[in-house]
Amino acid sequence: MHPDRPLLIKSTTPFISALKHIDRSLEKLDPLLRRITNPARPSYNEFKDYKYVLVKGMGKCIPKTISIALYYRTKRGYRVDISTGTDQVLDTVETGEVIETREGPEKQMKHQKRDASYVVAKIWFK
Amino acid sequence: MAPSKEQPQATKKAKLYNSRTIRAENADPSLRNGILNTSEYITSREFEIRSFEVSQHNTRNAASTRIFQSLPRTLRRRTASHNVKRIPPRLRKRALHEMNSSGLSKVSKKRRTGRQLHYLKTRKKLLQIAWKLRRLKAPISSSEGTIKERISDLNRQLNLAQKETKNRLNNTNGAYDNISTNKLCAPRIGVKYGNRQRKFAWTPNHIWHAKRFHMFKRWGWHMPLSPNQKCFRAVTRASGEYAVGCDTSYYGSLVIRCPDLETAKTAINTFTVYNKTIPSDILGGEKAYNDWLYLDEKQAALVSGFFEPRQNSLLIRLHPADYVRCFEAILEWAQQQKGVEVDDCRYALGSIELRGPAALNYLAKIACGQTSEGSLGTLLEYGKHFDSNLVPVGTVIACFVRDPSLLTGAAHVPFDTGHKTSSSKTESKFKQLLVEMSSTVDHDASEALLVSEKRSEAYENMHAWKAARKTGSKKQSKLTPALIYKLRSGAWCIIMPWFFIQPLWMRLQETTLNRFQSVGYRQMHQLDTEAMRAHYPHDFPFTVAGYQEHQLNSTSIQIARDKLPSSKKSCHEKTEDLISSGCDWWSLQKWIFGQMLLGSLLDKTFNFGEFNGEHNRVVRNSKDLMLVIHSLRRPNDVHIPVASFNAGNAIHKAFVEGSFKPDISKFPALPVIQIALLPTKRGTIKNNARIYSRANESSHDSLVGFVTSALFNQHLGNPSAIGVVSAQLRDSKVVYVRNVGCTTFIAARLSLL
To answer: Would you say the ipTM is above 0.90?
Structure first.
């Protein structure tokens, strides 16, 4: 996981693999955990500003993301903040224009914006 | 890395000793009456564990002050040498000291005498004259022959250059625009290693690659095949997490220059997939073309291209295997048109392909200044976005970028993290750019790249890489044109004038440090196969380049097999019959049509060979058919036995429906389709594996195709493969794969590509 970006939960992401991903980033970023898991390099200066791990889910994946957040709050005892919001996503749609080619008709495409709600869980380091 | 010279010897020694001592605690109060109190024991050992960690740290720090230290694998170029002269001069003294103290033998270079010394001296002389010529900004033409002849030739050029001041280059780097109009261009030949560049030209970064890569010679180029280090996992990781890059200057570019828009439209109609209407974005020079090049209405090569409307010029970038053939065909067409000219820009335009989420970010760091507007601003916006998957294939960014050799630092292009308020603005800007589909092409730049005179202008006052790095030579040279577009493989291709490719490559290495994996030809194939995407030309056996590739592959397998002692050869005769060990498309075509032709006449129970009165074999069973097919094989048959399935073709349609009756005198090319394969259970698929429609262990009756590329797919954690099979299997769900020389069949799900 890139430390700059939230972990995105897709509809195809299995619950357990999301947990594993989060655990891995916690091990890497949380100084307390890092001391146990990677004693040879207890301090990464590049990650010193990180205080939490972000998990984000959009649309259909909102329930799954909240389950993950609640798992960390109740079972693991982390402080978890959940916030909601709206993001713009792009859809690739047909313009309606069709061009005849040597290999049959080719549909022309364009991007279109759509609003989608999301939920972000902030899992704070212990 | 190195400690300062002022550091006293005693301190250094003390540091080294300190690094080796590990302090320990003697008293152990947790062991009482033979019972160990674990929690107490651990608490008391905490001190020791901590000091052990600290000691490990100290050791590592102490080791980093030594000359011979262990570098990360990817940064290693060759093993540390015992020849002290190979170590950089600034470190030599300390290296000698370290070698003495550790008892290593010093090998000093043998003094050259006699003929060897004479040879070296003459070579030095050759380079001195070449340097004088270069300082005069005179173009150097290197001739063939012995060193003596070459020296006299260079001397003649030097005399001429001192008398006449015409035809001077505009830089001391020896950079010039090497093109030929309406004929194939000869490569630029270096002074020192000229002879070895004549048949197989060098890419701009040849020397850099030759030190770090396995090289191979093909299609008129010395090409990087694969890094010296193991990199199978590293490449996949890099392509998913940051970026991989490949110097693809061996891809040849040609420019069709048309006198007016109408002729240009005819050219596009003739050579591209658009034979009637041309999309307005392609005609306006806003989108790159990523599809087949058509010659005589047939797919000839998978190419990328760009149309520049101001000059009515069409740039086509081809794989080196196709270049000469397609250039000649296009030239033939051009000569029938009025005023159309074709430039061979193979040695005038170079390119780099970058893949991975950070590809555009790295490029933006080098190309963009602090204030970026227009198309450079778009590049900056795209570069901030971590994943450029949203950007459609064919998106073009044409802009003037800073000369990479004169840069002192990289621009700050922060990744848009997507969860802070400031960055969500940039994210929406990125999306806005995609929705608006506003122009990202600076037509001044694309024009400057496609016109020879303007490329020459870009070279003005250009410095060689090392000269530019020296202090005092930070003169601002002109901006250089660059064309960046997205290929159908998802890679970003950067096309620049030939001599700017080397500084760009070096800057990429410098600014990205170890978060950039440089790869060769083999890794490009690996990445495509892992993404379950057909790799051109290897997975396209129905094209000329692809078929030649497979023929060569079969021959090389055969040669390697023939070299083995018979005890080491696996018994191919039993498993493969007379089908060759590679992908034998020729046999497949004859085999499938032969079976269709004879069909019910073949009798499995008939176990003997039968001959007629003229001593010709009578085909009674499938074994006879195989023998007859094999007896017809001619070594120099260039006819391609397979063709890509086309639903509009009457023969192909009949073949798929099962109503096709082949003519015994002439079989048509077998219609084939490309498929991706995933094994349903355990098992490995290897290259050239055979694909069957039924699992039948005794015969090849149900042979339908071959696996062209196979590997262990690290994205899936399973093997996956790309194969080409007969078009009869269009609606099938499962096929059976058997590796060469094996008898087990692996069931695999197939999906059409």
So the answer is: no
Residue among B125, B194, B518 nearest B352 (CA) = B518
Q: Of all residues in chain B, what percent carry a pLDDT higher than 70?
A: 90
DSSP B490-502: S-EEEEEEHHHHH
Of A39, A103, A108, the CB nearest to B53: A39
Chain B closest CA to A96's CA: distance in Å? 13
C-beta separation of B638 from B552 below 8 A: no
CATH 3.30.1360 fits B200-531, yes or no: yes
Residue B613 or B339, more confident: B339
Rounded Cα distance, B443 and B380, in Å: 18
Q: Is residue A78 part of a domain?
A: yes
From the CA of A24, how many Å to the nearest CA of chain B? Answer: 15
Closest Cα in chain A, distance from residue B273 (Å): 5
Domain range for A77 is 7-86+117-124
The CATH class of B544-586+641-752 is mainly beta
Residue-range domain boundaries for chain B: 9-65, 126-199, 200-531, 544-586+641-752
Is there a contact between B435 and A90 if contact means CB atoms under 8 Å apart?
A: yes
Q: How confident is the model at residue A1 (pLDDT cuts 50, 70, 90)?
A: very low
Q: Any idea what DSSP says for residue B477? A: -
Looking up tokens 């300082």, which residue turns up?
A: B135
Could you give the count of Cα atoms lying within 13 Å of B14 in the half-sphere of its Cβ? 5
A62 found inside a domain: yes
pLDDT tens readout for residues B99-143: 777 666 666 667 888 899 998 898 899 899 988 888 888 888 888
**pLDDT more than 90, % of chain A:** 43
Express each pLDDT in A7-47 by its tens digit: 899 999 999 999 999 998 888 777 777 777 666 655 556 66
Residue of A nearest to B357 (CA): A2
Asked whether the beta carbons of residue B419 and residue A120 sit closer than 8 angstroms, the reply is yes
Confidence band for B3, pLDDT divided at 50, 70 and 90 = very low
User: Is residue A59's pLDDT more than 50?
Assistant: yes
| Cβ count near A27 (within 10 Å) | 13
- CATH code for the domain of A81: 3.30.110.20
Distance between CA atoms of A59 and A91, rounded to whole angstroms?
A: 14
Number of domains chain A is built from: 1
> By the CB < 8 Å criterion, does A42 face chain B?
yes
